[in-house]
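FIELD: query
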Amino acid sequence: MFYCMISIQDLDLRLFHFINGDLSNIVFDYLMPALREKLLWLPFYIYLLTFVIVNYKWQTALIFILSLAITVGTADITSSRLIKKNVERLRPCNDPDVKEAVSLRARCGRGFSFTSSHAANHFALVFFFIYTMGRLFKKLRWPLVIWASLISFAQIYVGVHYPLDVLFGALLGAAIGMIIALAYNNLISDSIYLE
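FIELD: result
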């Protein structure tokens, strides 16, 4: 068991160095830090909220927006306050054993690394969207998963997360997104507002 953990950590570190170092190129150096920026995606978030407000009854739109906020908030709190503060894994850019070899392309941050909140939040949003509106927008399912994956991949490339941080953040977010979407779907299907 102990050997298995060492092997997983070794693989995680090797994969980190491959993504952060070996994949370095001028296009990624520009693109990956930009993908992490919230302001870049603000028009998308505004479009999503506007679409819901315009196309849903106001009561359903309100429940959708509240459910979406609960989804992302739950993912963020679970990742940042519950898991990170208990696991206490150092970020690669703060780890004394690793940081000298890290190509840091973004602010490192003082917080812990496991799990990635960027990955958790974006996968929660995507899976909530897929399980609530996915039937209407089937063609957007995979582009949304790719979008969240690119944002998550960027966390490794810029040097602030290990691959396992991102993988478990994505799994956490996907699970939270699905669970809250199922609750939303049950609430809406039983809602007097839709009669």
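FIELD: remark
Residues 58-87 form the longest helix (30 residues).
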